[in-house]
Write the structure tokens for this entry.
Amino acid sequence: MMVTLVKFLIGISIALLVNSTNNYQSIRESNKLTEVYVSSNGIKESKPDAFQILDHKCNVCHRKRNKKCVFTTENMNTWADDIYTQVFVKKRMPKSKKIKLTSKEYQDLLTWISSTKTSTNGI
């Protein structure tokens, strides 16, 4: 439990550090330009990046094997705790050996998950 908490806090710290460096740049990834969304308080909006990961890396299997848990932009925040547990704590997802998350994708998911925590708690 303590190791999980430490990993989560390190992930949040890294996410906050990444967000504080340059909020207005564009990121080029896999020949596709992804805009960085910045909210009114100057914090990077990570939901579009996270959804792109969930859609391309998770929904591929979920559409076939677990239709109740297909991620959409409307329901993804409600699944944030479960995604954190399955991906970062239990390391069970993604299940396929063919589908791997890059370190940037792990970081984007952690950034999004931490932003759902702060927005939920009002911090």
